[in-house]
């Protein structure tokens, strides 16, 4: 899909969206969601999101906006290392409306601690061998 988007002229790709899930009230045997199925987001989807960013990073040249379960700066750095050029934060704001401000501060602190002078030096920096 990312290759198709790139071939069609996309300037960037954004991933991942929610993953479709379900929840059931066993007492009533009814779905907990009005639509029966619904979008799963937040920390539960982060491993899947990281894997997809990593795969897409190796498949296309356009920049990737990575998201899915980012709750803090460490999560965000994981996405950058897996190949994201930028990140987005959604669900975390339901817990803390200024979560993204903390994410940025924590990323800056991490970079200072590690002596990383520019975020570009971390993009796709995962060491696999
Ligand atoms: C309440 C809510 C509404 C969303 N609406 C959309 C939408 O309209 N279009 C879309 O592409 N993604 C939508 N998403 C998915 C988010 O953009 C994001 O990809 C996903 O939630 C994973 O990131 P997160 O774990 O930081 O929330 C929505 C997510 C939530 C929680």
Shape designation: globular
Percent of residues in helices: 25-40%
The helix/strand order is HEEEEEHEHEHH
Ligand set:
flavin mononucleotide
Number of domains: 1
Quote the average pLDDT. Answer: 98
For the largest beta-sheet, the strand count, sense and barrel status come to:
3 strands, parallel
- Category from helices, strands and their pairing: alpha/beta
The CATH fourth-level homologous superfamily: Aldolase class I
Report the count of strand segments: 7
Q: What name is given to the CATH topology?
A: TIM Barrel
CATH class wording:
Alpha Beta
Physical arrangement of strands within the biggest beta sheet: 1-6-7
Describe this protein with a few key phrases.
TIM Barrel, two-stranded antiparallel ribbon, 5 helices, 16% strand, globular, binds flavin mononucleotide
What is the fold's blueprint, element by element?
Elements lengths: L1 H6 L5 E3 L3 E4 L1 E2 L4 E2 L5 E4 L5 H14 L4 E3 L6 H10 L3 E2 L4 H4 L3 H16 L15
Parallel strand pairs: 1-6, 6-7
Antiparallel strand pairs: 2-5, 3-4
The protein binds flavin mononucleotide.
């Amino acid at each position: 899909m990312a290759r198709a988007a790139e071939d069609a002229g996309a300037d960037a790709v954004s991933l991942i969206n929610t993953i479709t899930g379900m929840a059931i009230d066993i007492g009533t045997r009814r779905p907990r969601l009005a639509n029966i199925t619904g979008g799963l987001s937040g920390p539960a989807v982060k491993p899947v999101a990281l894997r997809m960013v990593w795969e897409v990073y190796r498949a296309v040249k356009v920049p990737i906006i990575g998201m899915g379960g980012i709750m803090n700066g460490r999560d965000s750095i994981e996405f950058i290392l897996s190949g994201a050029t930028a990140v987005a934060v959604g669900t975390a704001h339901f817990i803390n409306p200024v979560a993204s401000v903390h994410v940025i501060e924590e990323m800056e602190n991490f970079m200072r601690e590690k002596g990383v002078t520019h975020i570009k030096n971390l993009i796709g920096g995962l060491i696999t061998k």
